[in-house]
Amino acid sequence: MRAEWLRWELVGVPVIFLSGSALHFAFEWCGRSPLIAPFAAVNESVWEHLKLAFWPAVVYAIIEYVAFGKHVAGFGLAKSVGILAMPLCIVLLFYGYKALLGHHVLWLDILIFLVAVAVGQVSSYVLIAAGHEHAGLGWVGLAAVVLPGLCFAGFSFRPPRLPIFRDSVTDKYGLQQ
Known about the structure:
With about 180 residues, this protein is mostly helical.
């Protein structure tokens, strides 16, 4: 089972990466529809780019759950840790290198996205492979994913006036354009 789980997690890396890359453009492709705004980047802020890892990872976790996850002890907690590790990794690495260099570099941003997805997928694998039963913590994990999901949806329309929400191109926030 561990080999199959590892295979699923590793296949998830390019699936999530490519799906997230498509979400970068989906808002424009869909005619700037407010229906797609909760899931796709609506501007060039760091916050909006976190959706690009989060939502594809959630969808992939649901697919994994249907395929075999309901029979895996600790699945919910492991996947929630992996899903939340992705945006956290993006924020830490992006602001870390930007503090060192003083500006952002596109190819490094793309590499960080890929690394963050890999970290998230490997994190969930490590937790599952440890084989610990996490009675009741699956619901905690689910709640820990629902809250950011609601924030991603809501902050597309009404973001706080904080730097992470500011569009680096237009200096505007959320859907203001």
